[in-house]
Design goal:
Layout lengths: L1 H27 L2 H7 L3 E11 L10 E11 L3 E3 L2 E15 L2 E14 L3 E7 L12 E10 L4 E11 L2 E2 L6 E8 L1
Antiparallel strand pairs: 1-2, 1-10, 2-4, 3-4, 4-5, 5-6, 6-7, 7-8, 8-9, 8-10
C-alpha cells in the first residue's frame, strides 16, 4: 500500500510539474512573440568591424564603425512573418578614419522565429564612386523579448554581381527606443 501511495504521489508531482512548465516552455521560445512585435518602431544601432574590399574599392579598407537611428514601418504581416521598410534617419560612419554622415533606406523580411534579413540598395560607401550600384544584405535575430537584435553582414553585390567572398567582417546591434 505504501508503494502505491508513493507511486500516486510521484505521478501527481510529475503532472503538476509538467502543467507548471508548459507555459514556461512556451516563453523559452520568445521568438514567436518577437516576430509578432516585429521591427516596427524606432531603433538605435551600432556596427563595427573590418572592411577589406578588393581594388579598385580598397580605399576604405581598415576599421569600420557606423551608428545611428532607424525607423521601421509595421509592414505586411503574413502567416510566415512580416515584410516592410526601414529608413535610417541619421547615421555617422567611420571608414578607417574617413567620417561620413548619411541617410538611406531598405527593406526587411522577418520570419516567425525572430530571424530577419535587411536589404539595402546603394548603401553609401566612400570607396564606391557615385552611381556604382550595390546591394548589402544583413542577417539578424531579435533578442531580449524584441528589445534588441544582433546583426551581421551576410552578402554584398557590386554592379549586380554577388561577391563570393565579402572580405569584410561587420557585426552590429540594434536597441529598441
Amino acid at each position: 500500500m505504501k508503494n502505491k501511495m508513493m507511486l500516486l504521489f510521484g505521478t501527481l508531482c510529475m503532472l503538476v510539474a509538467l502543467a507548471t512548465l508548459g507555459p514556461l516552455s512556451h516563453k523559452a521560445f520568445a521568438d514567436e512573440d518577437d516576430a509578432k512585435r516585429g521591427l516596427e518602431g524606432s531603433w538605435a544601432f551600432q556596427f563595427t568591424g573590418e572592411v577589406n574590399l578588393p581594388a579598385p574599392f580598397n580605399g576604405a579598407n581598415g576599421r569600420f564603425y557606423r551608428n545611428g537611428r532607424f525607423v521601421a514601418d509595421r509592414g505586411t504581416v503574413t502567416p510566415a512573418g512580416a515584410t516592410g521598410n526601414f529608413h535610417v534617419t541619421s547615421a555617422t560612419s567611420n571608414y578607417n578614419g574617413v567620417v561620413g554622415h548619411e541617410t538611406f533606406a531598405g527593406t526587411y523580411i522577418l520570419a516567425n522565429d525572430g530571424t530577419f534579413h535587411l536589404t539595402i540598395n546603394n548603401l553609401p560607401v566612400p570607396a564606391f564612386p557615385p552611381g556604382v550600384p550595390n546591394v548589402f544584405v544583413f542577417d539578424g535575430v531579435l533578442a531580449d523579448n524584441g528589445k534588441a537584435a544582433k546583426v551581421v553582414l551576410a552578402a554584398v553585390s557590386i554592379f549586380g554581381a554577388p561577391q563570393p567572398n565579402i572580405g569584410s567582417v561587420i557585426a552590429g546591434e540594434f536597441l529598441r527606443q
